[in-house]
Design brief:
about 375 residues, mainly beta, seven-stranded antiparallel sheet, about 5% helix, elongated
């Protein structure tokens, strides 16, 4: 009788335990979020280029790391070390939209995340159209924040050439690159007037081609901006030649001039060697000044309109020293033999010659 009673009680207990385990209020329990995990960063902002970054992890137990997007990869993906450096490699973003992802580190029941944001790709620059039969060989669109390595500065005091009054100095104050243009600034500093004269590929230059710049000119009596070329292997002037694609002097408002210099033709004022035109918006808008240079002739253009053609007459170097490499020059002078011919007016200072681009094309 006692044995039977014990069996019945055991059955009842087992049944009660079974009912309790099937109750609707039961939940699965997980490990407590009590692991000690520290990451060195919580947010990362990246440029569009392919690159990598690191995250230092400190944990009190083994951990795993993973990323939420296929443009990221993390190494190592797990570790038993208490201190570990994760390296996250990032693919280039070629899309025109920003993208986001996360790096997650899990240790026990603890999760830590790093938010990763990569900027959209920079919009492609518009394709530069070359003149028919030419291809682009060098250019500067002045898209950065300072002049590139292809440019060098002249450093010289007043009277360096042409009795000019300014000092040519080096620095971002006189050759300022910002918002997609180069500004050659002419300004008074105490008793001195400072400006820039800069050379593109001075030791290399180009022989023949289509050379073009887009320029907005300064105004004011005494200003003398120029876009021109000189020979790389210069020994004597004017015997080695000079190509003045565009010059202008402030006392002759809105007039631009194209000129060549050589032994046969040098400041003679003839229509063979020089021509001028009026550009009514030269001070308020950008205009294109160009020279197309071949072994047989040089043609000068303003906004695509022919201004001057100088032909190789076949008589030799005195008339045609233009069969050698020349380099590009940009400068803004103050006063001088031509710019100061009618005096200078310091009330126009500071003045700026603004350049949108310089491009060199050569025949294919």
């Amino acid at each position: 009788m006692k044995m039977r009673t014990k069996m019945i009680l055991s059955a009842i207990l087992v049944a009660a335990m079974g009912f309790a385990s099937c109750g609707g209020d039961s939940e699965t329990t997980y490990a407590d979020d009590d692991s000690q995990v520290t990451l060195s960063v919580s947010e990362v902002s990246l440029t569009p280029e392919a690159q990598s970054f690191t995250v230092d992890v400190t944990a009190d137990r083994e951990f795993a790391a993973y990323v939420s997007a296929d443009w990221l990869d993390v190494t190592p993906k797990n570790s038993i070390n208490r201190n570990e450096k994760l390296t996250v490699s990032v693919q280039q973003n070629t899309a025109d939209e920003e993208r986001k992802a996360t790096l997650t580190v899990v240790a026990g029941g603890t999760r830590r995340e790093v938010s990763v944001t990569q900027a959209a790709a920079e919009p492609l620059a518009p394709e530069i159209e070359a003149p028919e039969g030419y291809t682009l060989v060098w250019h500067d669109e002045f898209d950065g924040t300072e002049l590139g390595a292809d440019w060098t500065y002249e450093v010289a005091g007043p009277g360096f050439v042409n009795d000019e009054l300014q000092s040519y100095v080096k620095g971002t104050d006189v050759a300022e690159v910002s918002n997609g243009t180069l500004k050659i600034n002419l300004y008074k500093d105490g008793n001195d007037v400072k400006s820039a004269r800069i050379y593109a590929k001075r030791n290399q230059g180009w022989q023949y081609g289509y050379i073009e710049a887009s320029i907005k000119l300064p105004e004011g009596k005494g200003t003398w901006p120029a876009f021109w070329m000189m020979p790389v292997n210069f020994t004597t002037w004017p015997g080695d030649g000079e190509i003045d694609i565009m010059e202008s002097v402030g006392y002759d408002p809105n007039v631009v001039v194209s000129t060549i210099h050589c032994n046969k033709y040098n400041n003679g004022g003839t229509a063979i060697e020089s021509a001028r035109t009026t550009v009514p918006t030269a001070y308020t808008e950008f205009h294109k000044y160009a020279c197309e240079w071949s072994p047989t002739k040089m043609s000068f253009y303003v906004d695509g309109e022919l201004l001057l053609t100088y032909a190789n007459d076949g008589t030799g170097k005195d008339a045609w020293p233009f069969d050698a490499p020349f380099y590009v020059i940009l400068n803004l002078a103050w006063g001088g033999a031509w710019g100061g011919q009618q005096g200078v007016d310091e009330s126009c200072l500071p003045a700026t010659m603004e350049v949108d681009y310089v491009r060199v094309f050569q025949q294919k």
